[in-house]
Amino acid sequence: MAEVKVLKSPGCSRCAQALVLVRKLQEEMPGLSVEEVDITEHPEEVLKHQLMMSPGIVINGKLEFIGVPKEEELRQKLAHA
After folding, report:
1. From the CB of residue 54, how many other CB atoms can be counted at a distance below 10 Å?
2. CB–CB of 68/37 below 8 Å?
3. Which of 14, 8, 9, 3 is nearest to 69 (CA)?
């Protein structure tokens, strides 16, 4: 299954929304690996993915979404990962 990183920053409400969505799908998809990455503590992730704003959702090493994706779009990306 897919490996997901949620690139987030402290106090970011959109980051919290994205994380809730990813965690919801994690409950539905056994084997989905989810990691939360605080970009203030790991700025190398910002550079690596050329992230201009948070949150960023990385699936299997590729930045797939910036901001909070629609649930169906995220579900489709994960199904094909």
Report:
1. 21
2. no
3. 14
Residues 6+ apart with CB under 8 A from 51: 7, 39, 45, 63, 66
**pLDDT tens series, the chain, 81 aa:** 799 999 999 999 999 999 999 999 999 998 899 999 999 999 999 999 999 999 999 999 999 999 999 999 999 999 888
Report d(CA 39, CA 54) in Å as an integer. 9
What is the chain's percent helix, strand, coil content, to nearest 5?
40, 25, 35
Contact 3, 60 (CB under 8 A): yes
* CA gap 65, 74 in Å, rounded: 8
Q: What is the pTM of this model?
A: 0.93
